[in-house]
Specification:
The chain has 6 helices and 8 strands; from the N terminus they run ββαααβββαβαββα. It has 187 residues and is an alpha+beta fold. It has an 8-stranded mixed β-sheet with strand order 1-2-3-4-5-6-8-7, with helices on both faces.
Amino acid sequence: MEKLIIHTERLTIRTLKASDLESFFIYRSNPEVTKYQGFDVMTKEKASSFIDNQKDKYFGNPGEWVQYGIENKLTKKIIGDCAIKLDKNDPRIAEVGMTISHLEQKKGFAKETFLAILEFLFDIKKLHRVVETADVENIASINLLKSIGFRQEGHFIENIFFKGKWGSEFQFAMLKKDWDSIKSRKK
């Protein structure tokens, strides 16, 4: 097990810490940000407890979601968070998720984070498959996943009772060979 730290040009993806609370709370308490997420609007107490529960989690424990802060290198503040969970039955498969602050959207941070996570999972950890699920109404996430090279594999109709109503989801996936092909085209 290891603490995860990934550096990109503008970002550091790293373990959440207590000093992230104010920035974390700003976006995790915004109903527009949480609209398609598997969590509800957070109180400051819930946000603090969530960060506290994450600080001792390490990458690599199959079946366990681990949440990471996405820190802007210039401001030293988190602008969002992302999560990785290795499959409980086959740790060569990972599921990922991401939340970007409403104050930092449409700046390319989500794509930069996703690409760095994929590089880590496929090139360093040698995983076989990465999956992501998106609400069918979350057009921004769907477009992001497609722009990166994820393939839509499933459409689940009213498969989840979510925030008081039945919701539908798309499942996306990328294989290591897809990632290798994408990288080779960019050279």
